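User: Fold this; tokens only.

Assistant: Input:
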Amino acid sequence: MVKAQSARLDRKKLFGDPVMVSTIVVLLIFLALFILYPLAMLLIDSVVSEGRLTLDVFGRVLDMGRFRTAFTNTLELGFIVGLGSTALGLLFAYVDVYVKIRLRVVRRMFNIVSMLPVVSPPFVLSLSMILLFGRGGIITRSLLGIYDSNIYGLHGIAIVQILTFFPVCYMMLKGLLKNIDPSLEEASRDM
């Protein structure tokens, strides 16, 4: 009863403000004009050919060799990044939950390094990989003396995406590991 009354009051307050109503209307018009209309036209053009419904466009696209190559490369990259991010996130979560790091400075650095990809813009990590490990990179050329390194391609994209997405796995797995019942851990050690 109280929730329904509160919802009615909130709705009344929301629609009673003319600035809020006009803002919502303008945003809905922009959404319909610039997102929904182009998507609808794209969908109509993809299923209507010569005035009849057909899926020939999808068949032509699926028969293209470049599309199949891009599709398989995307699946391969997703599989590699998923496994790599999960493994690295699990390693960081395990160290954070179960390993007792005595030095506070080391613990803070560990937390900063594990969360840095979340707060940095996405292009920063890729640019830093190119500047450090590219053909003229600081690490490859100056420190290691490697002149024919190639960070471009599947392995370079996989490394950058693994480093970008592992904090998400780290945060989820850290919460999961913290909530494991200690008696369950003791029972597994006794087996």
